[in-house]
Protein backbone atom coordinates (compact mmCIF):
# COMPACT_ATOMS: atom_id res chain seq x y z
CA UNK A 1 0.00 0.00 0.00
CA UNK A 2 1.07 3.60 -0.51
CA UNK A 3 2.30 5.45 2.55
CA UNK A 4 0.10 8.42 3.40
CA UNK A 5 1.99 11.73 3.61
CA UNK A 6 5.27 10.07 2.58
CA UNK A 7 7.04 10.61 -0.73
CA UNK A 8 8.18 7.50 -2.59
CA UNK A 9 9.65 6.34 -5.89
CA UNK A 10 7.66 4.29 -8.38
CA UNK A 11 10.12 1.79 -9.84
CA UNK A 12 9.90 -0.91 -12.47
CA UNK A 13 10.12 -4.38 -10.93
CA UNK A 14 12.07 -5.54 -13.98
CA UNK A 15 14.53 -2.69 -14.58
CA UNK A 16 14.60 -0.61 -11.41
CA UNK A 17 14.02 2.52 -13.52
CA UNK A 18 11.79 5.10 -11.80
CA UNK A 19 8.91 7.26 -13.04
CA UNK A 20 10.21 10.74 -13.74
CA UNK A 21 9.14 14.10 -15.14
CA UNK A 22 12.75 14.91 -16.08
CA UNK A 23 12.41 18.10 -14.05
CA UNK A 24 9.48 19.51 -16.02
CA UNK A 25 6.53 20.76 -13.98
CA UNK A 26 3.91 21.85 -16.53
CA UNK A 27 0.59 20.21 -17.37
CA UNK A 28 1.10 17.80 -20.25
CA UNK A 29 4.62 16.79 -19.19
CA UNK A 30 5.17 13.21 -20.31
CA UNK A 31 6.15 10.64 -17.70
CA UNK A 32 9.19 8.56 -18.57
CA UNK A 33 11.35 5.99 -16.83
CA UNK A 34 14.86 7.05 -15.83
CA UNK A 35 17.73 5.92 -13.68
CA UNK A 36 17.09 7.11 -10.14
CA UNK A 37 18.95 10.35 -9.35
CA UNK A 38 17.22 11.18 -6.07
CA UNK A 39 15.72 14.41 -7.38
CA UNK A 40 12.29 15.62 -6.30
CA UNK A 41 10.74 15.20 -9.76
CA UNK A 42 11.05 11.42 -9.28
CA UNK A 43 9.06 11.43 -6.04
CA UNK A 44 5.33 10.81 -5.71
CA UNK A 45 2.75 10.99 -2.95
CA UNK A 46 -0.58 9.18 -2.66
CA UNK A 47 -3.75 10.96 -1.58
CA UNK A 48 -7.30 9.66 -2.05
CA UNK A 49 -6.34 7.63 -5.13
CA UNK A 50 -4.29 10.39 -6.76
CA UNK A 51 -0.55 10.00 -7.41
CA UNK A 52 0.88 13.48 -6.93
CA UNK A 53 4.29 14.48 -8.26
CA UNK A 54 6.29 16.05 -5.44
CA UNK A 55 8.02 18.75 -7.51
CA UNK A 56 4.95 19.97 -9.41
CA UNK A 57 1.92 19.02 -7.25
CA UNK A 58 0.31 17.79 -10.50
CA UNK A 59 -1.14 14.27 -10.70
CA UNK A 60 -0.47 11.21 -12.82
CA UNK A 61 -3.08 11.34 -15.58
CA UNK A 62 -4.04 8.95 -18.40
CA UNK A 63 -3.85 11.22 -21.45
CA UNK A 64 -7.22 12.38 -22.73
CA UNK A 65 -9.13 10.22 -20.26
CA UNK A 66 -8.87 7.38 -22.78
CA UNK A 67 -8.76 4.20 -20.68
CA UNK A 68 -7.26 1.65 -23.04
CA UNK A 69 -4.21 -0.58 -23.32
CA UNK A 70 -1.19 1.34 -24.57
CA UNK A 71 -2.43 4.80 -23.61
CA UNK A 72 0.33 7.00 -22.14
CA UNK A 73 0.36 9.04 -18.94
CA UNK A 74 1.40 12.60 -18.20
CA UNK A 75 1.14 15.29 -15.53
CA UNK A 76 -2.11 17.18 -15.21
CA UNK A 77 -3.97 19.28 -12.66
CA UNK A 78 -6.16 17.34 -10.27
CA UNK A 79 -9.76 17.31 -11.43
CA UNK A 80 -12.71 17.64 -9.05
CA UNK A 81 -15.05 15.58 -11.25
CA UNK A 82 -14.57 12.96 -13.97
CA UNK A 83 -11.43 11.68 -12.24
CA UNK A 84 -11.56 8.20 -13.77
CA UNK A 85 -8.21 8.76 -15.55
CA UNK A 86 -6.43 10.18 -12.50
CA UNK A 87 -7.19 7.74 -9.69
CA UNK A 88 -4.99 4.76 -8.96
CA UNK A 89 -4.73 1.70 -6.75
CA UNK A 90 -2.05 -0.85 -5.96
CA UNK A 91 -2.35 -4.62 -5.80
CA UNK A 92 0.35 -7.30 -5.84
CA UNK A 93 2.98 -4.66 -6.60
CA UNK A 94 1.16 -3.25 -9.65
CA UNK A 95 -0.32 0.23 -9.99
CA UNK A 96 -3.67 0.12 -11.79
CA UNK A 97 -6.41 2.53 -12.87
CA UNK A 98 -9.21 2.39 -10.30
CA UNK A 99 -11.77 2.79 -13.10
CA UNK A 100 -10.45 -0.35 -14.83
CA UNK A 101 -8.18 -2.59 -12.70
CA UNK A 102 -7.09 -4.50 -15.82
CA UNK A 103 -5.07 -1.43 -16.87
CA UNK A 104 -1.71 -1.20 -15.11
CA UNK A 105 1.30 1.08 -15.47
CA UNK A 106 3.65 -0.77 -17.78
CA UNK A 107 6.45 -0.32 -20.28
CA UNK A 108 4.86 -0.99 -23.65
CA UNK A 109 6.31 -3.88 -25.61
CA UNK A 110 8.44 -4.94 -22.65
CA UNK A 111 10.80 -2.05 -23.47
CA UNK A 112 13.63 -1.57 -20.97
CA UNK A 113 15.09 1.69 -22.32
CA UNK A 114 15.68 4.74 -20.16
CA UNK A 115 13.56 7.63 -21.42
CA UNK A 116 10.64 5.45 -22.51
CA UNK A 117 7.29 7.27 -22.20
CA UNK A 118 4.95 5.38 -19.87
From TrEMBL:
UniProt cross-references to SUPFAM superfamilies, sorted A to Z: Ricin B-like lectins
InterPro entries noted in UniProt: Ricin_B-like_lectins
Domain of life where this protein originates: Eukaryota
Name of the protein this chain belongs to: Uncharacterized protein
Amino acid sequence: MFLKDKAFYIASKKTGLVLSTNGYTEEGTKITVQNKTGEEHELWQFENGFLINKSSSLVLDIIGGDLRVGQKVNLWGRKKTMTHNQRWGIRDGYIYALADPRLVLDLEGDCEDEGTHI
